[in-house]
Amino acid sequence: MWNPTRKYTDRPAIILGIETSCDDTGCGIVDTAGKILGEVINSQHLTHLKYGGIIPTIAGNMHRQRITAVCEDALKSANLRLRDIDAIATTTKPGLPLSLAVGNTFGKYLSRISNKPYIPIHHMEAHALTVRMEERIDFPYLVLLVSGGHSLLVIVENVNQFYTLGTTLDNAPGEIFDKIARRLKLANISEFSHMSGGQAIEMAANKATNPKKFVFEPAMTGRRNCQFSFSGISNKALRYILKQEKEFAIDGNTIIPDVYNLCAALQIAVVKHMCLRTQRAMEFINNLNLISPEKRTLVVSGGVACNNFLAKALEIVCLEKSFKFVRTPPRLCNDNGVMIAWNGVERWIANVGVIRNRDEIEMIAVEKKVPLGESWIERVQDANIKCKLVKLKGLCD
Ligand code: KG4
Ligand code: ZN
User: Fold this and answer.
1) Nearest protein Cα to ligand 1, atom 1
2) Fewest beta carbons within 10 Å, which of 38, 131, 240, 356?
């Protein structure tokens, strides 16, 4: 029976985390010392690749079929029983409602049968905090969260307080990579066939001989804020593809001749846009002295943070702006249950958002769209910071 007076210092508490916000069914078990005790991730990626995108009903059904086995296997891999767990943490927002609902229903069920507290988790908060499981990073810090569903620049003030400096006006960078990779039919090239769109674009870009062959105008240069927009870049890439398809009479499953150069040019355009917004966020922090100079840190996380070209570019920006650069370990950047369990650990230690009342737990519903913390978007806009992207020496300048 759970004892609410027991402190995490007696022995490490153990949190089980469930992730089903999109197309990965994940369960992670982490203790308050930051040790990963067990982990299972079941990706639906190859199924959705066949359909040309994520079909929410299919994603929901696949989560439902797999959730029990994924959680059982995670417990087995940790050599633990449900009664050894101190609390259940589950992603309840934001994400695909049909997918989120599977995790939320199952998480509440586990909490009910084991009589343990429940910790609802905001998926993007989890991405923002994961890095602290591996490395000591003090609050506050700046984080760039880039994935298939999000593009955010956020100050992490503490476990429960976030200030959003910028978000996307249209698409997320991973979404653009996935869409263009599909349009380029990269999955028809055997070495890319099992990769996510973003990973395939990065690998294809590494084979480019002339990335400057395709020109992308910088996005949103006139707006002195930290908002993102990727639709212009995406449309331009689609126009280049169409042009080459016509020019070389490409049809069916064949691929345009300049595929590698186009992937490289696209990657540069997307990365430069993210870097410029991040640089302005750093200048905003520096100008207002929001973080003391010796503590200034940029963390990058989310699936797109697996991109090595982005990591190198951000490292250059950090060096110029005197920020320490910390990349969330790539194995923890893509969606997984461990990051949800870790967010549960952070909340358990701070004792915020740990729900113990059974009626309250049963009332918790999933939410499709939820902003991350307080919006400082206008504050950044009002600061009107003129910003010229530092030279990305050795990368693309
Ligand atoms: O965080 P995540 O697993 O799921 C979401 O919450 O969206 O991110 C998945 C996204 C996909 O769009 C995928 O194409 C992208 O991350 N991604 C990458 C790379 N690896 C995964 N994008 C660029 N470069 C990569 N190496
Ligand atoms: Zn994610």
Assistant:
1) 303
2) 356
